[in-house]
Amino acid sequence: MEEEIDRSRAFAKDVKRIVVKVGTAVVTGKGGRLALGRLGAICEQLAELNSDGFEVILVSSGAVGLGRQRLRYRQLVNSSFADLQKPQTELDGKACAGVGQSSLMAYYETMFDQMDVTVAQMLVTDSSFRDKDFRKQLSETVKAMLKMRVIPVFNENDAISTRKAPYKDSTGIFWDNDSLAALLALELKADLLILLSDVEGLYTGPPSDPKSKLIHTYVKEKHQEEITFGEKSRLGRGGMTAKVKAAVNAAYGGIPVIITSGYAAENIAKVLKGLRVGTLFHQDAHLWARVVDTTSRDMAVAARESSRKLQALSSEDRKNILLDIATALEANEKIIKAENDLDVAAAQEAGYEESLVARLVMKPGKISSLAASIRQLAEMEDPIGRVLKKTEVADGLILEKTSSPLGVLLIVFESRPDALVQIASLAIRSGNGLLLKGGKEARRSNAILHKVITDAIPKTVGGKLIGLVTSRDEIPDLLKLDDVIDLVIPRGSNKLVSQIKNSTKIPVLGHADGICHVYVDKSCKVDMAKRVVSDAKLDYPAACNAMETLLVHKDLEQNGVLNELIYALQANGVTLYGGPKASGKLNIPEAKSFHHEYSSKACTVEIVEDVHGAIDHIHQHGSAHTDCIVTEDSEVAEIFLRQVDSAAVIHNASTRFCDGFRFGLGAEVGISTSRIHARGPVGVEGLLTTRWIMRGKGQVVDGDNGVAYTHKDIPVLERTKAVENGH
After folding, report:
1. In sequence order, what are the residues at sequence separation of 6 or more whose Cβ sits closer than 8 angstroms to the Cβ of residue 67?
2. Crossing angle (nearest 10°) for helices 418-430 and 366-379
3. Short-list 522, 529, 488, CA closest to 505
4. Calpha distance 304→432 (Å, rounded)
5. Where is the Aldehyde dehydrogenase domain (predicted)?
6. Cα of 40 vs its chain's centroid, Å
7. For FRET with 601, which of 74, 249, 543, 561 sits at 20 to 30 Å CA-CA?
8. Cα-flanking dihedrals φ and ψ of residue 596, to 5°?
9. What is the largest CA-CA distance in the chain?
């Protein structure tokens, strides 16, 4: 699996001077005519860069194709009907170049003039570059133009080039406009070279082949022997082979190169922002990416094989792995915190929402808390191989229903790096292989946590037990692996969960929203209600089990309790929105929707008739996650507890207790609102399935003749007693 590289780090210094090469297939459309819309969009991007202070140098192909189209039209106009019946001779390529160059330049002048940008035509030949004085003069001229914000437009002067058609000669200083662009980037000391093509970048095979994959970072040591190139350019001389050769030459000369599509809008701007588009060529690429790629399937299969090795260990050995991980986390707390601080700073600089940044932060004491939960998990009864039911099927024929790992889990989560630790420890305790894909905003935190954990796993099992997926592009491939991945658990937004559910045949476990309610009944203890409501909202506002809606019995408006609850929240900085009833009475803005997860210091308040009104509201607007009632009336409490159809329903305690660690599960992979397999906080038991083990003494079915079925339940011994008795 290819590493995801931070493109912004690929450029050794601030980018100032850029060479952009536009291929023939980008410049021209069907019939050889100019692709006006596409070329206009590129010109607009370059003009914007020019106005932003970048020094832009354009290398443009397309003159030959454009000239050929114009000459064919002229030939058609001047031909008789009899002439058209004769075989048409191929037009001279050099004549086409001469005609096309003026037309191409006229277009650039017209287009850039509309954007108040001046351009200059620069026609060069290979032989010119053999002259040192020419090179010196070229550099001085271009430098003067760039200083005056002029964009030089380079093209090989094919009309007088000494190379003959069909341009099979690739010797010399440059041999096409791709190699010219690379040469100019080196000669003019550019900071970046962008080669625009008609495909997204370099693929492992022909782009038309569905099996071909985009190569995000080209590693010469790996890819030069593996790539199968398709045909050359349908219009120009080069094609991808020429682009790769030119890109490698420039990259190893110290100029970062991106090959990307000229068809996609804003791709030049995306490159400069460091976004992951196209294929990157860099002289240090071999230091970033692993020379041996691992496919999604390889990673999943390796996780399964390692999980079987884990299951083969003794219970004590599996316990010790978890204890070693807890110790390793504490030993590496400083470096983990340093990497997390970098993630947080980057997220803040990028302008991420406050709620996302809050989930990203690993607060002081978080590592100690995680280590404690792992140790608690290690001390729990071994969940693997527990006998859940034992039956005598017939005399001497014993059947056992036992707990068993699911196999390989794929967990996709956003923002919270501590989730990686919880999930990994649960996977190990339950004997499962694991693939993890965290959010890009936690990239550094996830990487260091993954390394610390996998380094603590003994070689007899192998670090491949837990795979870290670094690229979002790999997720679609993983979701297709229903034969090797057994369960997907998405932890994140409603959009994320919905996308995954709609994209895979693999069972999906999780919840889309965490719209949790606290209903304060008329018979509540006021101080208790204020404590529970405040904690449910303020203990960790970004958590999925935080209160998002406060429901209050109508009588509490009259006796002033509602105002006390409102003051307790507002005094702690909570922004309040009201339902139709509450907004007018409390003079607060009306909520746009009850079905809204704030994940911040904000919540909705509404007034209801009674407990039945609260239940109806929760069923209509809730997400079946966690809901709470505060009341001293036991009868009302039982109605609420029995009738609210949520994964967790709580009486006189904060919704924040709905958590795997607080429920005594050790940790959790998430909270499920599904009604099949597991519901609520999903700990070890939620990651197990069952299998049947039968022990006999030579019995055969033989049409059920001679078999006396007894089907008697046999008491299940405790694990310690079973082990002592040799079972």
Report:
1. 95, 96, 97, 98, 99, 100, 101, 103
2. 10
3. 488
4. 8
5. 299-566
6. 32
7. 561
8. -140, 130
9. 105
